[in-house]
Design goal:
The protein has about 525 residues and is an alpha/beta fold. The protein folds into 2 domains: about 150 residues, Leucine Aminopeptidase, subunit E, domain 1 (3-Layer(aba) Sandwich), CATH 3.40.220.10; about 325 residues, Aminopeptidase, CATH 3.40.630.10. It contains 16 helices and 17 strands. The strands form 3 sheets. Strands 7-8-10-9-13-17-14-15 form an 8-stranded mixed β-sheet, sandwiched between helices.
């Protein structure tokens, strides 16, 4: 099985008649390069009767161009203090939507590189591909025979080498984002844990990625007791039973870096016994976006096959159901690391399903080359409250902070518009999660929503460190391990809407594409 990525072709000929229309994404028609001068005159002519050219997407009839059609989607200004490369993806999304409305089936996207944003062409291509994503359920229902919104998306490049590289990178990155969107965006029955496992196994069949699925309840209870507590209620319904999906990629050549990823895959979050009330349960099928991003990143690895890197991944696929067998606040659960965890709120299940997998990664990390551990999750509403939508948040433990990891991720995210904000794990976060009585070593959380809790997105990272035993591998230990927690509650995408695939592009930029951008 391969992800159903929109077919893409490249061309150096802006008048290539294999296409039926052009979508021009640029700041201004006045700055077009020599190769695109044929697009300048009709836009100048149009601007003579409409001074608002550039403020809205416009469609022009231009004889001689493919399909005699030109869609102009201006980025608007890109040189202000607060502008960034997302102007190009935003414009491409708007341009594609107008092209679809016009009936184009073979649009040619033309986005000449901008002097300040050398990757603007790739960013625009990714924006266009995002707009052309066809949800998995629609594809499977065969509501459109081809399974695509358009027959082909054309990408223009000035030179052949640029065109080949553009298409390769766009296809690989979008392939990962499609896998992520399929898992994250599909409804809680289509992507219940056992069906996620089936999807992932089919996805990586005959690929460099190895897949192992853990489904045996006794193994889950023994190896991942905190995850098993969350699974306890759902386990009574066979189609909702938990799965731990383990992935491994090992590039050719001596390994120089090992990434160890744990993704939250809560297929549906009712809140459990602390049930989500007041209409806020809708959209909780998207609580599997962290695990979906892990799968998506492995798909990028399978496509690009980077050398000298090893990546281990664990997808914690669990449903947080409510019923007579659900776990409840006040329970004591002993984590894999032997820490007695007091449950404070069953709606804080994400940290529970990841913590034992993180502990397992910690155990493996001491034997790996240059390891770095990560948790990726739509973990807290506080992340959205603190940073707004559209931004992932990364926070480092002591060793990762000393190495400047979070700043490096933020810089990588800026390159292709997969944006990050940086937070810090402070002493107050550790204090918050220390046991409050003789009964427990660690308090899972308080009984308030994260949005009503000070430092509501930072403190869960401290819980994960304490309950997994990673605190024994801090900068003061003989075997310090770098660890970073990534909260994608804001960046994973709107609901209703299409998942973004965050933070796959930033991860690929940071660890795979450094020589290509």
């Amino acid at each position: 099985m391969d992800t159903c990525v929109q077919p893409v072709e490249w061309t150096t000929d802006v008048k290539n008649q294999n296409f039926d229309g052009i979508i021009l994404v640029t700041q201004s028609h006045d700055t077009l390069p020599d190769e695109l001068q044929c697009l300048k005159a009709p836009l100048q002519d149009y601007s003579s009767v409409d001074s608002g050219l550039g403020e809205e997407v416009v469609l022009l009839k231009v004889p001689g161009l493919p399909g005699n059609r030109l869609v102009f989607a201006s980025t608007g200004p890109v040189n202000r203090d607060y502008d960034d490369v997302r102007r190009f993806s935003d414009a491409a999304v708007n341009g594609i939507k107008r092209a679809l409305k016009a009936g184009m089936q073979r649009p040619l996207l033309v986005c000449p590189p901008h002097k300040e944003y050398k990757n603007s062409t790739l960013v625009a291509a990714l924006g266009a591909l995002h707009a052309l994503y066809m949800p998995l359920e629609i594809r499977e229902a065969k509501m459109k025979p081809t399974g695509y919104k358009v027959c082909v998306l054309g990408l223009w490049a000035a030179q052949e080498a640029q065109g080949k590289k553009l298409m390769e990178l766009a296809d690989a990155l979008e392939s990962g984002r499609v896998a992520c969107r399929d898992i994250s965006g599909s409804d809680p029955e289509r992507m219940a844990a056992p069906r996620v496992a089936d999807y992932v196994q089919a996805l990586f069949e005959n690929s460099p990625v190895q897949v192992e699925v853990v489904s045996d309840l006794k193994i889950l209870e023994k190896e991942y007791p905190c995850l098993a507590a969350v699974n306890r209620c759902a386990n009574g319904v066979p189609r909702h039973q938990a799965r731990v999906i383990k992935l491994q990629y090992c590039g050719e050549g001596p390994i120089q870096k090992t990434l160890m990823l744990v993704g939250k895959g809560v297929t549906y979050d009712t809140g459990g016994a602390d049930i989500k009330a007041g209409g806020i349960m809708a959209g909780m099928h998207r609580d599997k976006s962290g695990a979906a991003a892990v799968a998506g990143f492995f798909q990028v690895l399978a496509k690009l096959k980077p050398t000298h890197i090893k990546v281990l991944g664990s997808m914690a696929m669990v449903r947080n159901s409510v019923g007579s067998d659900c776990y409840v606040a006040d329970e004591l659960v002993v984590s894999r690391a032997g820490r007695r965890v007091r449950v404070g709120n069953t709606d804080a299940e994400g940290r529970m399903v990841m913590v034992d997998l993180l502990c397992e990664m910690k155990e493996k990390a001491v034997r790996e080359t240059s390891p770095h551990l990560f948790t990726i999750a739509t973990l807290t509403g506080h992340a959205i409250r603190a940073m707004g939508p559209n931004y992932s948040i990364i926070m480092d433990n002591g060793l990762a902070h000393r190495r400047g990891n979070a700043a490096q991720w933020q810089k990588a995210g800026d390159v292709l518009g997969d944006m990050f904000e940086v937070s810090n794990i402070r002493r107050e976060d550790y204090e918050f999660h220390k046991g409050k009585s003789e009964y427990e070593d660690v308090l899972q959380c308080n009984n308030l929503p994260s949005t009503a809790t000070p430092r509501g997105h930072q403190s869960p990272a401290a819980f994960l460190i304490l309950a997994s035993g990673l605190d024994k591998h801090g900068v003061d230990s003989d075997t310090p391990l770098p660890y970073s927690h990534i909260d994608i509650a804001g960046s994973s995408g709107p609901f209703p809407g299409v998942p973004t695939g965050a933070p796959i592009v930033a991860m690929a930029t940071n660890y795979v594409l450094s020589g290509d951008l």
